[in-house]
Amino acid sequence: MELVFALVIGALTASGVYLLLRARTFPVVVGLTLLSYGVNLFLFASGRLATGQQPILGSSASYADPLPQALVLTAIVIGFAMTAFVVVLSLRNLADNQDDHVDGNRKQDEDSEEAKQ
Amino acid sequence: MNHWLTAPVLIPLLGGILQTFMGYAPIALRRTLALATTVLLVATSMVLLTMADDGSYRAYAFGNWQPPFGIVLVLDRLAAFMLVMTSVLALLAHIFSLGGADEGNRQFHTLFLFQLMGLNIAFLTGDLFNLFVAFEVLLIASYGLLMHGGGTVRTVPGLHYVVLNLVGSSLFLISVGMIYSVTGTLNMADLAVKVPQVTGENALLVKAGGMMLLVVFALKAAVLPLCFWLPKAYASATAPVAALFAIMTKVGIYAIIRVYFLVFGDDAGELANLGMDWLFPLALITLAMGVMGALGADNLKSLTAWQVIISVGTLLAPIALGSAESLSAALFYMLSTTWIVAGLFLVADLVASQRGSAGDRIITAPMMRHRTFLSVLFMIGAVAAAGLPPFSGFFGKLLILMSVEPGPQMAWLWGTILVGGFLTLVAYSRAGSIVFWRTVDGHVETARPLKGTTAVAAGAMIALTVVIVAMAGPINRYTEDTAAQILDTSAYIDILQTPMVGEDD
């Protein structure tokens, strides 16, 4: 289980970082989402992986750590809100610059620079 | 348990919630209530400062959960110092925003107050995960504030800022997870107990987590390889927002002081002084980079934004050295530089408003209105920022220079700060003489009138540098006590023994 879990986190993070480095806002947003999935799973694993155990002390001989579950829940909520914001921002960027390049519309910038001079 | 500790969080929270629901109320009412909230915050932080000055730690356990199991707010001299620095700056920036910058968006005051709430949680919290939540609260408010104002110029810098900070948040969570997986706690006092006991393989995990945490804080503080988002974002923000953002890099510096001196301090066994040998050269390179940027800046706002990076470098170098004197000097300089940078942002906006189409670009233009008043403000700010006598920047830098012991580090620090200070002076002289003195014939056609509120707020912000000089004795005494308190980590650990309400029954 550990190996599969680690591979999943690794794959999510690697593809997240790859997409993050793209030049268009859409892959960047998808990359951020994948990265946050990887991070959430990683955070979950910090309480050690266990199956069929309760996160309650004293209910059985061993127990699952409840704190990372609470941390992941918080991280998911925050990550979801941030993703929503970055999607809106990307749309605004697309509307403002008629282009979804992360640096805005470069061609238009050059045109306006020339117009200034 | 001391319920006063929740006030700096609750006041902006309640004020912000109130503002959320009054988006359509008359603007005069919204402004009055928003300003009243900020004034209340200044008063509260002053009360907390006097409380913290007795040198003891006060803790507030949420829900009456005994630390380390619950989240605690901790008030000490450092936290109170940061609270006062923030609330005074916020009050003046807020007054400045009443001059018209808060129009055009019904939720400006809401975002402003929520930003303050996030800052205050970050300064007060005694829990690493709660610090993450505080960062997110202040960041999401700052995203909104950064985008505030008309036009499309802020979209691209805003997008870069948001994406970079989201990556930073992911790194923060990864490092929190790594530290938690070994120590089983995220309470800072408990971490300070557990981290020194970590050995072997586990120490490497904590070390990796700690170094990643340093990367996150360095991103917030804008240390060199991670500082390129700052100038564009700050220079495009509206003036009161940029002034408030002067505090944002200091949050990163605060977090470095808090976590690295407490958890990875001298007593941390295998992990003692983690990352500090990296921080010193990086800080000096950051300073040099900031000076280069300032020399090349083509408008007053980006000049000031590069000044933020210069001050981050100047602050982190003595912090990395880690002696009581250098820490105290850094705190003194932090107070001075934060307020001055905020003042310069406000002055740059006033200058831009009086120069018509030339704005705040460093080019020759027809003579601006109110030149004497604005040029005096700019000169005081520039002299203080470059670190010349008689203003506070000079005393801050002098304290930093005097705090290092002779050796190669002293040579590097003195060389970089002195040469950097000189070149900063060149940058300010160039900007000031072109903007204020070198005028061309003609007249400014579209100058906005200089409003009383904005002029007073900018003037007061710059005048704080004189206040710091006048109060240098008490402030220096306070920062020295603060440094001693930060370095004495054993007292912080006693927070774990905080008695809970009703326990003695």
TrEMBL record, chain A:
It comes from the Bacteria. It is found in: Cell membrane. The keyword Transmembrane applies. It is a multi-pass membrane protein. Keywords: Cell membrane, Membrane, Transmembrane, Transmembrane helix. Residues 97-117 are annotated as: Disordered. GO terms for cellular component: plasma membrane. The keyword Transcription regulation does not apply. Pfam families: Oxidored_q2. The chain crosses the membrane at residues 26-49, 70-91. InterPro entries: CPA3_antiporter_subunitC, NUOK/Mnh_C1-like. Belongs to the CPA3 antiporters (TC 2.A.63) subunit C family. The lineage of its organism: Bacteria, Pseudomonadati, Pseudomonadota, Gammaproteobacteria, Pseudomonadales. This is Na+/H+ antiporter subunit C. Residues 98-117 have a biased composition (Basic and acidic residues).
TrEMBL record, chain B:
The chain crosses the membrane at residues 6-25, 32-51, 71-96, 108-125, 131-149, 161-183, 203-229, 241-263, 278-297, 304-324, 330-352, 373-391, 411-431, 452-472. Pfam families: Proton_antipo_M (PF00361). One of its GO terms (cellular component) is plasma membrane. Residues 126-419 form the NADH:quinone oxidoreductase/Mrp antiporter transmembrane domain. The keyword Transmembrane helix applies. GO terms for molecular function: NADH dehydrogenase (ubiquinone) activity. InterPro entries: CPA3_Na-H_Antiporter_D, NADH_UbQ_OxRdtase, ND/Mrp_TM. One of its GO terms (biological process) is ATP synthesis coupled electron transport. PANTHER family: NA(+)_H(+) ANTIPORTER SUBUNIT D1, NADH DEHYDROGENASE. Belongs to the CPA3 antiporters (TC 2.A.63) subunit D family. This is Monovalent cation/H+ antiporter subunit D. It comes from Marinobacter vinifirmus.
